Amino acid sequence: LAKTTQPISMDSYEGQEVNITCSHNNIATNDYITWYQQFPSQGPRFIIQGYKTKVTNEVASLFIPADRKSSTLSLPRVSLSDTAVYYCLVAFNQAGTALIFGKGTTLSVSS
Amino acid sequence: AAGVIQSPRHLIKEKRETATLKCYPIPRHDTVYWYQQGPGQDPQFLISFYEKMQSDKGSIPDRFSAQQFSDYHSELNMSSLELGDSALYFCASSLGQGFGYTFGSGTRLTVV
C-alpha cells in the first residue's frame, strides 16, 4: 500500500479556502486517492475520491497532477464546523481491500 | 438512508472479561471492515470480510476474532480484555467493487 504524508495540522479562518496536500510517491497504477473527514468520537466520513486530474463535488475539490505522486484537497470557504481531522488514503479499488489510515491533518478553523 | 449500525454504543468491561461488538452493514453491502481507534490515535485496521469470508487482516490481536454471518452482519469477539483495548471500535461497510466506505458511529469500549 502506498504510504501517504500530510501536514500534521493546519489553521484557517472562516470563509477562507483551505488546501491540504498529501504526498504519495509510490502510488501504484491501479490505486485511487480518497479523502475522509473525522470529527471527535465519530466515524470517518467520505469526502471525495479521484484517480487523476480534478474531481469536484458539493463539498470539496480534489486536484491530482499527472504524475499522481501527490494530491490536494481543496475546501472552499471553510466554516467552524469544518474543524476536523482529514485523512488522505491511497489504495487499490478492489472488493474487500482495506483502507489503511495514516496520520491525518488536524484542521482548526477560527472565527 | 440506512447507515451502518453498531451496537452497543458504549460498553464497560473489566480486565480479563470478554466483549462482543456487533455491526450491521448498509443493506446489500457485502463487505465489512473493523477498525480500532485509541485516544488521540488514527484508526487502525483490524480485519475485513467480503461475502462472509475473511478478505484482509490487519493488526488484530490473537485475542480477538471476528466473523461475518449469512445476513452480512459481523461480530467482533474480544477475549482476555486488557486496559489497552479501551478504544473506539468502528465498523464500515461497502458494496463489493469500489470503496464507498460508510462508517458506523462506533462502539466505545472501556476496560477497567
At a glance:
The complex is a heterodimer of chains A (111) and B (112). With 111 residues, chain A is mostly beta strands.
Can you offer a commentary on this structure?
The complex is a heterodimer of chains A (111) and B (112). The model of chain A has no long low-confidence stretch (mean pLDDT 92). In chain A, 0% of the residues lie in helices and 49% in strands. Chain A has 111 residues and is an all-beta fold. Chain B has 112 residues and is mainly beta. Chain B contains no helices and 11 strands. Chain B has strands spanning 5-7, 10-13, 19-24, 31-37, 44-50, 53-57, 64-68, 74-78, 87-94, 102-103, 107-111. In chain B, strands 2, 4, 5, 6, 9, 10 and 11 form a 7-stranded mixed β-sheet that branches. In chain B, a hairpin with a 6-residue loop joins β4 and β5 (44-50). Chain B is globular. The mean pLDDT of chain B is 93. The interface between A and B is medium-sized, with 25 and 31 residues.
Integer-rounded radius of gyration of chain B: 13 Å
Report strand % of chain A: over 45%
Bulk shape of chain A: globular
> Average pLDDT across residues of chain A?
92
Mean pLDDT score of chain B, rounded?
93
What structural class should be given to the helix and strand makeup of chain B? mainly beta
